[in-house]
Amino acid sequence: MTDATTPTAQPIQVLLADDHAVVRKGIREFLEEDGAIVVIAEAADGAEAVRLAGELRPAVAVLDVQMPI
Prior knowledge:
Strand content: 15-25%
Number of strands: 3
Radius of gyration: 13 Å
Helix content: 25-40%
Mean pLDDT: 92
Structural class: alpha/beta
Low-confidence stretches: none
């Protein structure tokens, strides 16, 4: 049996969406700190987040609820 801390486990794929680049950078660094999570895409607005979610099908989406578009 494997879990997220086992080296053979696949990292959790995350879509990160926020309209502030510095916030996205900070959240990415925090999430990817231990290797169990990988940010597979970033979006700067809601339309881009919806497009990327449909295209990439991440396991998790971390979204800013007050983004443009």
